[in-house]
Design brief:
- Helices cover 34% and strands 26% of the residues.
- By secondary structure, the chain is an alpha+beta fold.
- It folds into three domains: 3-46, no CATH class; 56-159, Uridine Diphospho-n-acetylenolpyruvylglucosamine Reductase, domain 3, CATH 3.30.465.10; 164-259, Enolase-like, domain 1, CATH 3.30.390.50.
- Helix 10 (218-228) runs antiparallel to helix 11 (239-259).
- The structure holds flavin-adenine dinucleotide.
- The site of flavin-adenine dinucleotide has 28 residues, from strand 2 and helix 6.
């Protein structure tokens, strides 16, 4: 079980960042769901609950998800349900169960950049950006490739565009980790395809999306996505199975987007 020496509940992000960086083994707490499964011995746990990051706000241009908003908040948010055919609420609805999703946070889920994430492929095709206390505003696609750093994710911001999107995933059983997942979106004729649980971090299939922009059939785009991305095997699925899933789920997602009015 995770153990830590102290718990800090700062009232501001400035204070939170100071405590976080004061010692190498100090760390941030989101919902803490994953951390509890580990056996690490850490310094001070920094709880962001009093930093007013528990919000979902929307204006005409964007939707802002505070880092301490729960995945259930995201799932039930009207603004998120209306964005890209509700692709992000749809994606997180597969994670374990409602009570669990009430306790895990947007900040922990995005900053963790977990390879199996259901949320990240959806956020990538929605062209989200992350706001970091020290690192500033970074497009999520760029953040996904950055090495781990100590920072505070304050919010995730998604442009409010007229986009059509679809999320597809395969699990051995419901509430298990995904074997592979795919999100696809089309905004004003520009396509995005993101594939996650490869089992590596979600990544954009750039060439396959450009081919869709140029008008190729869904099957050809799916073949290109499976060819351009890397896959590997683990105890859940082989590399070859994941590649085939990528092709099948991408065709399904593109066709669903095309059928979406
Ligand atoms: C048993 C189990 C099964 C799961 N299955 C799935 C699944 O099928 N699909 C899926 O997508 N997800 C799954 N998850 C992951 C889950 O949805 C959450 O993404 C995960 O638990 C992290 O959320 P949290 O709020 O608990 O973060 P925490 O565990 O508190 O934090 C995760 C990491 O992010 C850091 N962190 C937290 N908040 C911030 C912040 N604001 N800024 C910077 N760093 C921060 C923490 O220090 C830590 O390193 C599963 C988790 C568990 C425990």
């Amino acid at each position: 079980m995770l153990t830590f020496q102290k718990l800090a509940q700062p009232q501001s992000l400035t204070e939170a960042y100071e405590i976080l960086t004061a010692q190498k083994n100090n760390f941030l707490l989101g919902g803490g769901a994953f951390l509890r499964l580990g056996s690490a011995k850490r310094g001070t746990a920094v709880d962001l609950s009093a930093c007013e990051l528990n919000y979902i706000e929307a204006n005409e241009e964007e939707v802002r998800l505070g880092a301490m908003a729960s995945l259930r908040d995201l799932e039930t948010s009207l603004s998120m349900r209306q964005l890209g055919c509700g692709v992000a609420p749809q994606a997180v609805s597969h994670i374990i169960g409602v009570q669990f999703r009430h306790s895990v946070t947007v900040g922990g889920s995005v900053f963790g950049r977990f390879g199996f994430s259901d949320l990240l492929p959806a956020m990538l095709v929605l062209q989200a950006s992350v706001h970091l206390y020290k690192g500033g505003i970074v497009p999520l696609a760029q953040f996904m490739e950055q090495p781990p750093q100590k920072d505070i994710l304050t919010q995730v911001v998604i442009p409010r565009q007229a986009c059509r999107a679809s999320y597809q995933q395969m699990r051995t059983s419901c509430s298990d980790f995904p074997l592979l997942n795919v999100a696809v979106a089309e905004t004003d004729g520009v396509w995005k395809i993101a594939v996650g649980a490869r089992p590596g971090r979600a990544a954009l299939a750039i060439q396959a999306a450009a081919a869709l922009d140029a008008g190729v059939a869904p099957e050809e785009a799916a073949r290109l996505a499976a060819a351009e991305l890397s896959f590997s095997g683990n105890n859940r699925a082989s590399e070859e199975y994941r590649r085939q899933l990528c092709e099948a789920l991408t065709v399904r997602a593109v066709k669903e987007v095309l059928a979406c009015k």
